């Protein structure tokens, strides 16, 4: 009988099967799982996440609003100045202009600016761009993908995904998929850029009028979780980054908040600042106030004596939990570098009923594939002791792959299920190669003979696996929509087979056919 050492590959296979079972069925094990309603809400028995084809939902493909001026040689020290000057000339927010010395580009993100106006603004500042084109730079597109991913994750939208999609003519789009969500809900999440600013509103002692000075930007803040309590109401705890804490404290002292201030929401008029009646600390989200309040005397004192720098924290009270949640999302996910053009967007919506039908048909297809493969294998060998381990090994490969998908929370669509069926087919093909090489070359009398035949078969399997991986790799890395998912599942399945299941089947076959005598 083979020793445990000789069958370590089988032990590895069993261990992976147990880990896959944990990832599939133990709640809360996969990273990023949430109790909130999401793409997996319709699938309570496992940790698998479904994409819109199997769960219903919406996919929106929209271009980014903006123009890019190429060949603008702005010095690093002049980037901020040029951004402010161009935004003033165009009448847009300063965050809607971005200058980069590294890429020699200037971008403007506003649908109220024309190409000629953009060029005139640059020429007025002494710059002659080589070209102005519609669209934004690659760096901005990548930043958009990163921020939208964070928005989807922080909003507990499980199974959501975002990627760049190239279109004919060189234009690029952002494609966002939201399982179990409607079009309006998804647009509502994406059209809010999440711009957070903190202002000190105070009396200007020179003329008695109120002024509004920005004291913190979004990048200066880290947010905790939105909370409701009896003493503080709905609020978001925030921490000021160390690099900005001292500057913020000094600005607050200069603005007259060193002794604290008393301010209610009714004391502040956002539209007509001169109607305000008290010194207030104001936080705006997308230009609208979500936190208006005074400064506690103890906090004001910490501004003056330097204690705030050592513990740079305070809370932002909001009017309701909805505002608190939106503020938390904006601070954690960050702001979108540019808006998306939903007027020229393409959208696809799939109903939950149709998605459930796809699930059922996919399950039926998988069962039929397993039955068909099992029959072919049995008819080929007519020996249950050879065919049964082969079928079980192939199915274990699929189970491990399902565990991997559940662990990384990769949302399944129809293309991924096609990848699973391809893995079953290629897996059984490789197992047949192993069985034929060992059983069709005469009686196996010694372990050395078995090992020689198995090694020969494994070289064939390894070469076929390498060819498959090389062929699928371009599909995996390119922005080709569902084809990328098919390639990822196929490649991971092939790797699991070559590294774990095929060697384990070799050990099982060795135990069954080796003549110990």
UniProtKB/TrEMBL annotation:
Taxonomic superkingdom: Archaea
Domain Protein export membrane protein SecD/SecF C-terminal: 342-500
Residue spans crossing the bilayer: 362-379, 386-408, 414-436, 457-477, 483-501
BP GO annotations: intracellular protein transmembrane transport; protein targeting
Keyword Metal-binding: no
Protein keywords: Cell membrane, Membrane, Protein transport, Translocation, Transmembrane, Transmembrane helix, Transport
Cell location: Cell membrane
Keyword Protein transport: yes
GO CC term (a single one): plasma membrane
InterPro entries: SecD/SecF_arch_bac (IPR022813), SecD_arc (IPR024912), SecD_SecF_C (IPR048634)
Xref: Pfam families: SecD_SecF_C (PF02355)
Protein's membrane topology: Multi-pass membrane protein
Subunit record text: Part of the protein translocation apparatus. Forms a complex with SecF.
Similarity annotation: Belongs to the SecD/SecF family. SecD subfamily.
The protein's role, per its UniProt record: Involved in protein export.
Name of the protein: Protein-export membrane protein SecD
Native organism: Haloarcula vallismortis ATCC 29715
